[in-house]
Amino acid sequence: MELKVRDVARLLNVSEQTVYRWVKSGSLPAKRIHDQYLFNRVELQEWAASQKHPVSLDLFKRNGSTEVIPSLADALERGGIYHGIPGDRRETVLEAVTRLPGIPESVDRALLHQLLVGREALASTALGDGIAIPHPRDPLVVHVTEPYVLLCFLKQPIDFHAMDGLPVRVLFTLLSPSVRQHLQMLGRLSFALHDPALKELLGRAAPKVEVLDRIRVIESTTGTGAIGTAPGNSGRTQ
């Protein structure tokens, strides 16, 4: 379902004038049909993650009810945490990621590599602070039955064309069985990456148990409210 300006304003907790301003400046992706701007949910969540902007839990509602959001810690346990991932540029790093044992056997690894490279060609998935979240643009193309997240610490920093200019040292690769669960995982991850303690662990490539323990603590605080922002950082933007 395509979103209208008023929907986006509500989900991002901003005014409609702000949404129009972002669209006209080229900051917020939208398509114009018959003098009306329409927005894609996946693109909106990806934009919010890259801008570190909070997103209402309504983005994940279906038929008027909030579903249980899958656990990021569980998805990370399925995918795994890896250190010393080799590669001297984006393409070779992403190829190394697709060879990891955390990729389900049902996934075509060559296709996954093409999808990840293609997604980066459209727009960088780098969030800044040395972190990127490569994932297929269309999650349905990769056939998995539950969400997978792979955390990869790179052997050397790689240029992902991040807006802050910093090279990437940490990758979170997302594989999801549906668009809705892709949004949910991205939201969970966006929320977690606002946590200073987790950022410190990522900065020093901490062991698996420390990272997972911290993510479980973070997730215990996300019962309600907006996903993609730290607790206490709310309020309508004009």
Describe the overall structure:
By secondary structure, the chain is α+β, with helices and mostly antiparallel strands. It contains 9 helices and 11 strands. It has 2 domains: 5-64, Multidrug-efflux Transporter Regulator, Chain: A, Domain 2; 72-227, Mannitol-specific EII, Chain A (3-Layer(aba) Sandwich), CATH 3.40.930.10. It has helices spanning 5-12, 16-24, 41-51, 72-79, 90-98, 109-122, 179-192, 196-203, 208-219; strands at 31-33, 36-38, 55-56, 61-62, 65-66, 81-85, 126-128, 131-132, 148-158, 168-175, 226-227. The strands form 4 sheets. A 5-stranded mixed β-sheet has the order 6-9-10-8-7. It has a two-stranded antiparallel ribbon with strand order 1-2. Strands 3-11 form a two-stranded antiparallel sheet. A hairpin with a 2-residue loop joins β1 (31-33) and β2. α5 (90-98) runs antiparallel to α6.
Supply the key terms.
single chain; 238 residues; alpha+beta; Multidrug-efflux Transporter Regulator, Chain: A, Domain 2; Mannitol-specific EII, Chain A; 2 domains; five-stranded mixed β-sheet; two-stranded antiparallel sheet; 9 helices; disordered C terminus
Radius of gyration: 17 Å
- Strand fraction equals 15-25%
Task: Report low-confidence residues grouped into runs of 5 or more.
Answer: 223-238
Can you summarize the main beta sheet?
5 strands, mixed
Summarize the structure.
The protein contains 9 helices and 11 strands. Helix content is 39%, strand content 18%.
